Amino acid sequence: MGSIRTQVCIIGSGPSGLLLGQLLQNAGIDNIILDRVDEDYILGRVRAGVLETGTCGLMKQAGADGRMKKEGLIHHGFDLAFGGNSHNINLLKLTRGQSVMVYGQTELTRDLFDKRRQTGGQSIYSVSAVEPRDFDNIKPFVTFKKDGQNHRIDCDFIAGCDGFHGVSRQAVPESALKTYERVYPFGWLGVLADVPPVQDELIYANHERGFALCSMRSPTRSRYYIQCNSDDKVESWTDDAFWDELRRRLPVHLAEAMKTGPSFEKSIAPLRSFVSEPMRFGSLFTVGDAAHIVPPTGAKGLNLAASDVHYLFEGLRDYYLENSKITLDAYSERALMRVWKAVRFSWWMTTMLHRFPSSTGFDQKIQTADLNYIAQSELAQASLAENYVGLPY
Ligand code: FAS
Ligand code: PHB
């Protein structure tokens, strides 16, 4: 068996793992990233599109924000569409100067891959049988297989950045974990198409036929979603059926203005809220989707992964550079305080904007009252806006 020694072993090379790895690398803290797939596979996953200010700040801190500053789209607001009309949520005004950056997770991940290559960070891809071991004492290690060979990485800490289906959370005894979950009775059918966005800011639409979202990746590439049944299959949706349904769910002026065309990516994402507590077990830390999942309605998934990385990096930096364990010991509590506020916001946005199969007449009236309250109250809009741009770290 090959044996390697590092300070922090990171399981997972998605946004969490790559961002944490880069911040550690820049601070001179040795780390190795493992992933069961390779870079092309990771870059082939189409996911988030909206970055909070904090996430952009971490990309700057990582020294990986060059292309994002050039190609990212700064958005000062977005529209809520319901009852045939659109209502602008002016983030810039309501938050006294904050906005969001529209820049696909794929591009953010690509930038972090490039930065890691430039700075010589060690990553090992296409591994299997990854196992975090002995993390309940001070000499943890991780075993894995690569090309049929057994390997072992001895380390001080293990960062479980391996997503919802990863091994890190599964490696923790069930008795040590408390999980909270809500599965939504619908999914999101998303398409990518090289057509110009229907307008230059995002549109979140509530309609009796279901939710719709108009987003983008650039002025020439649109990202659209419609709420679909949980058991819907991608292959049962032709492009024409998608475009027709999307237009039915938008105000007429937007439906008529929409440019359609062939999709080159089409996928269905299930929606769930999930949190597992705590986010630390001895020398194993869970980060991002490994610890929590939110419905994408509030654009929080990727951004929560970033704030987890912020808290864990601060802890590891203080441990190695200041010889202090205080911030590291506070990681789980600090991260979960912000996680639950984003879980609440994502649940609220999802409940307000989607059509629930079981909803009663009363539920519909409450949903309409919620939307009207926001459209008519600047204070209600300000609360939505401060959550959307991202609560402070
Ligand atoms: P990730 O899941 O991105 O990365 C985990 C990595 O760990 C993967 O590369 C995986 O290969 C690796 N891994 C897993 N098990 C392993 C093992 N046993 N050994 C080694 N490696 C292992 N968020 C939004 O904000 N907006 C959206 O619109 C949005 N859409 C989404 C659509 C889908 C289908 C999904 C699944 C998520 C979506 N998200 C969205 C959330 C998403 O962006 C996540 O929040 C983000 O990818 C979290 O990043 P990570 O925590 O790094 O986890
Ligand atoms: C996206 O562009 O993929 C996107 C934007 C906002 C969301 C979810 C997804 O809330």
Question: Which tags fit this structure?
Answer:
single chain; alpha/beta; FAD/NAD(P)-binding domain; D-Amino Acid Oxidase, Chain A, domain 2; 2 domains; 8-stranded mixed sheet; 14 helices; 37% helix; binds arabino-flavin-adenine dinucleotide; binds P-hydroxybenzoic acid
Verbal overview:
This protein has 393 residues and is an alpha/beta fold. The chain folds into two domains: 3-74 and 104-179 and 272-349, FAD/NAD(P)-binding domain (3-Layer(bba) Sandwich), CATH 3.50.50.60; 181-271 and 356-389, D-Amino Acid Oxidase, Chain A, domain 2. The chain has 14 helices and 21 strands. It has helices at 15-26, 39-43, 53-61, 66-71, 91-94, 105-118, 168-171, 239-248, 252-257, 301-321, 326-329, 331-353, 361-376, 378-389; strands spanning 2-5, 8-11, 31-34, 50-51, 73-75, 77-82, 85-90, 100-102, 122-124, 128-133, 141-146, 149-154, 157-160, 178-193, 202-205, 212-218, 221-228, 263-277, 280-281, 284-286, 292-293. It has an eight-stranded mixed sheet, with helices on both faces. It has a six-stranded mixed sheet with strand order 9-3-2-13-20-19, with helices on one face. α1 packs parallel to α6, α1 packs parallel to α10 (301-321) and α13 crosses α14. The longest helix has 23 residues, at 331-353. The radius of gyration is 21 Å and the shape is globular. 45% of the residues are buried. The mean pLDDT is 97. Residues 11-17, 34-37, 42, 47-49, 105, 130, 161-163, 165-167, 269, 288-289, 296, 299-302, 305 line the site of arabino-flavin-adenine dinucleotide.
